[in-house]
Write a structure and sequence with these properties.
This is Metallo-peptidase family M12B Reprolysin-like. Keywords: Coiled coil. With 449 residues, the chain is an alpha+beta fold. The chain folds into three domains: 157 residues, no CATH class; 174 residues, Collagenase (Catalytic Domain), CATH 3.40.390; 53 residues. 29% of the residues lie in helices and 27% in strands. The strands form seven sheets. Strands 14-13-17-19-18 form a five-stranded mixed β-sheet, sandwiched between helices. A four-stranded antiparallel β-sheet has the order 3-6-10-8, with helices on one face. It has a four-stranded mixed β-sheet with strand order 4-5-12-11, with no helix packed on it. A hairpin with a 7-residue loop joins strand 15 and strand 16. The longest helix is centred in the C-terminal third of the chain and has 21 residues.
Length: 449
């Protein structure tokens, strides 16, 4: 807004007059998840608090396109959705840089490559009033999305498959760019088979077995995995089977796989992983050709507080152990979190993971140097006799895997500072980041598909 001053001659008298000139409003608009979002589609954007909770904010910014709208940083969000998917609905966040909206100001949502919006045009003046009301409420310490304010909603519709990422720019009334969104290509949905194994002890009365499995609902977990989590990475989860393994508890106690906890229920050692290896062998005898992800739902608890466990390394690992206290409640965070590990994801928070992997890499490099001097030496490795050169090749592949795990999981955040499935202690995890979508898809293609 500005003021123009000019002089008038009226009846021989010179008068000075001023008139305010209303300039066009300058603004940006952002897509924003609705408060009741529950993982139904993938949406990843540069969160406002990333600069405070990220371990490497400057590098993180490179993961998002900076559209530089109206001379300011504008990081473009990623949307992943299936063709003809229902319920992809956003609120809008308005950022006014200068001026005030007039009645004829609008935001236009152009259709492109089978992507369209409903409505395809909204009033900027109405949106500005809404945003001011939301900001006022947030200033009081409330979250504007849980207030009584009626929010503008925009539905995204994908009418056909996308063979490439599609960028759509939002426009003002003069066709200036005021926002943008990238819809991820969706012409390749990956399938991942999941097999549930109920792991029981051979107790005579089945007390702890029944207590563990009475509340378990495999269909509920499949729906969670396929419609409210892994679908964000365009991964379709299918149920292969639900089977059962009954363990001889006394035999496994003698072998040191289980421990006597002083009561009727034995426990397995959390750190040794012999328990999972034992079940793995039994499962693979029964299902030698299975390829996918196996959940061992254990009625036998661990000796510690671990709710679940899955190995990120080696990448060929395909099994997850879930503790009894997570099974009956169909724990959302555990079932999704551990599958994320299986598909190559480390924790999203800052931890000593890199140091751990550096030690594993260093030990393998040392072995490579040792066996370079031992030509034609025979080595027994995992039940087979191989040459020293073959062993070196195996060690190098292991190093490559370890390096790629660390490099792929470059970005870390403050623990419990996000709603990411790979975080800890967040009350309602609902999301994966775009780079996590890419990691999981690649892992399925190479190792689990």
């Amino acid at each position: 807004m500005g003021t123009n001053t000019f002089k008038l001659q009226v009846a021989g008298i010179t008068k000075t007059a001023s008139i305010e000139v209303v300039e066009d409003i300058t603004f940006t608009v952002h897509f924003e998840r609705k408060k009741d979002y529950d993982g139904e589609f993938g949406f990843d954007w540069m969160r406002e608090n990333y600069s405070e909770i990220s371990n490497n904010y400057e590098e993180l910014k490179k993961e998002y396109k900076d559209a530089q709208i109206n001379g300011s940083e504008y990081f473009v969000p990623y949307l992943s959705m299936l063709p003809n998917q229902e319920g992809v609905i956003f609120n809008l966040k308005l950022e006014v840089l200068d001026g005030k909206a007039r009645k004829d100001d609008i935001i236009k949502f152009p259709a492109k490559d089978g992507i369209k919006f409903e409505p395809n045009e909204i009033s900027l003046k109405d949106l500005q009033k809404e945003q001011e009301a939301v900001d006022d409420e947030k200033a009081k310490g409330y979250d504007g999305d849980v207030s009584s304010i009626s929010r503008t909603e925009v539905k995204v519709i994908c009418e056909n498959t996308l063979s490439q990422d599609t960028s759509i720019e939002l426009l003002d009334k003069n066709d200036n760019v005021v926002g943008e969104i990238i819809v991820i290509k969706n012409d390749e949905v990956l399938d991942l088979s999941v097999h549930f194994v109920r792991v029981k002890g051979n107790e005579p009365n089945n007390t702890y077995n029944n207590r563990t499995f009475n509340g378990f609902n495999e269909n509920k977990i499949i729906e969670l995995l396929s419609k409210k989590s892994l679908n964000q990475a365009l991964i379709n989860i299918t149920l292969d089977n639900v089977s059962e393994i009954v363990l001889d508890v006394e035999d496994l106690k003698e072998k040191g796989v289980l421990m006597d906890s002083g009561g009727n229920i034995p426990r397995f050692y959390e750190e040794k992983h012999d328990f999972r290896k034992t079940i793995d062998e039994l499962f693979k005898q029964q299902n030698p050709n299975f390829r996918g992800a196996v959940y061992y739902l254990s009625a036998i608890p661990p000796d510690g507080r671990q709710g679940g466990h899955a190995a990120v390394y080696p990448k060929e690992s395909d099994s997850i152990v879930v503790a009894p206290d997570q099974i009956g409640i169909n724990a959302k965070s555990t079932f999704v979190h551990e599958l994320g590990h299986l598909l190559g994801l480390l924790h999203s928070f800052k931890e000593g993971t890199k140091a751990k992997y550096d030690r594993l890499i260093a030990s393998r490099k040392a072995k490579i140097e040792e066996y370079r001097t031992k030509e034609n030496v025979k080595i027994r490795y995992e039940g087979q006799v191989i040459t020293s050169s073959e062993y070196i090749d195996i060690l190098q592949r292991q190093i490559d895997q370890l390096n790629s795990i660390v490099e792929n999981n470059e970005f870390k955040f403050k623990q419990s500072g996000t709603d990411n499935f790979m975080d800890y202690y967040n009350s309602n995890p609902v999301a994966f980041n775009k780079w996590q979508w890419d990691i999981m898809r690649e892992e399925i293609k190479q190792y689990h598909g």
